[in-house]
Design brief:
Two copies of one chain form a homodimer.
Chain A lengths: L1 E5 L4 H10 L4 E8 L5 H15 L3 E5 L34 H15 L4 E3 L15 H12 L7 E3 L7 H10 L22 H13 L10
Parallel strand pairs in A: 1-2, 1-4, 2-3, 4-5
Helix pairs in contact in A: 1-5, 5-6
């Protein structure tokens, strides 16, 4: 299958790239939507795509000015557990539908059959556009959005992040190159919701955490 | 209802604006996706939104380089009947899903409850993302894309363009300000598929066509 993958440069989408490329002809798209950790995240995505030997394109959506703590330079990034209600400040409105819609437009233009993203079970509490019902309705919409059906792949939708980390080792994903931290500093801060989630995933998976955390 | 409308500056979305604003708090978004007739179309949208007294914003998606005869400066715009198979060259891949997704993102950011677009029955043959099944699945996806449900409004989905022209008169829409022609010249060319469709709609509706056609 010829598949366009949304690659953020984080753990989940990186493992999905190495998972898919065993059987798919994959090309990757990343998005700059003004995320504060964009420089680090998109740098990681570029490096990972190059290592995987797949085509990669960064698309600029900064003109949309989507409002979120993630896209507002002076807003506080909530610290603490990733499933805390406070983490909802990091929701970027309709981010996944926008990214999937654009990825599908590009896939259609290139005659590709599928788009993929790495939503997983750990996202369900905070991110509405990672829930199974959203995936199902988007899958239906993508099947009918063009004269050629586009298949939506979200194979990690019921997996935990620990499952993904474990699988990452199996498929040889470069976990050390992935970037999660929402702060976007020199090193992972180790304190924001997504750093907590990353650390916990490695611990639960029993996989050595290759991340250098600040402090 | 607080509703975000996708306003192209054409006949259908202009009538929808005047239809909705009788009962909705409407704000409009238009998109520059590199359409050749963009200057004329977006100019029309601006003028119409100003006349309607509603907020209006043009969003730039030219960075996505969506491929179509409509976005390729040297490609031939197919002439003739708007339902001819040749008109499929004017499909912009996944345009409506992208526009709806972005409009919903903006609506969520502003606490609005609905997004609207003017797909109609005359589009079904050529544009896959105007078909009722697409509207239904997108409606489901939009209900679940955020913690607050977003309602998708496509009230013209079973109407003909003649129905829309007739209704335009009833709701006082400025039909003379609307722009349809894909060629984007000084005047409507009168020959491209969308000019054919426009002319036919006025004739069938028994509405005086206010358009000045070239030649």
């Amino acid at each position: 299958m010829r598949t366009t993958l949304i690659l953020s440069g984080g753990l989940d989408s990186t493992v999905l790239l190495f998972h898919l490329r065993r059987e798919h002809d994959v090309r990757c798209v990343s998005f700059n939507y003004g995320q504060r950790h964009g420089t680090r995240e998109l740098e990681a995505a570029r490096e990972i795509a190059m290592l995987a030997g797949v085509q990669h394109q960064v698309l600029d959506l900064t003109g949309l000015s989507l409002p979120s703590a993630l896209t507002t330079p002076d807003a506080a990034i909530p610290l603490g557990h990733y499933a805390d209600a406070s983490m909802k400040a990091t929701v970027v409105p309709n981010r996944n539908m926008i990214m999937l819609a654009v990825a599908a437009g590009i896939a259609i233009g290139e005659g590709r059959e599928a788009v993929a993203y790495a939503a997983h079970a750990g996202d369900h509490t905070i991110y509405p556009d990672c829930r199974p019902a959203f995936v199902d309705s988007m899958a239906a919409a993508l099947l009918g959005c063009d004269w050629q059906p586009i298949t939506l792949l979200a194979p990690f939708i019921t997996w935990t992040k620990a499952d993904i980390a474990r699988h990452g080792v199996e498929v040889g994903a470069p976990l050390d190159l992935t970037w999660s931290c929402y702060q976007g500093g020199e090193l992972h801060c180790g304190k924001c919701g997504t750093c907590h989630e990353r650390r916990e995933a490695f611990t639960v998976a029993g996989v050595v955490d290759p991340t250098r955390y600040a402090g």
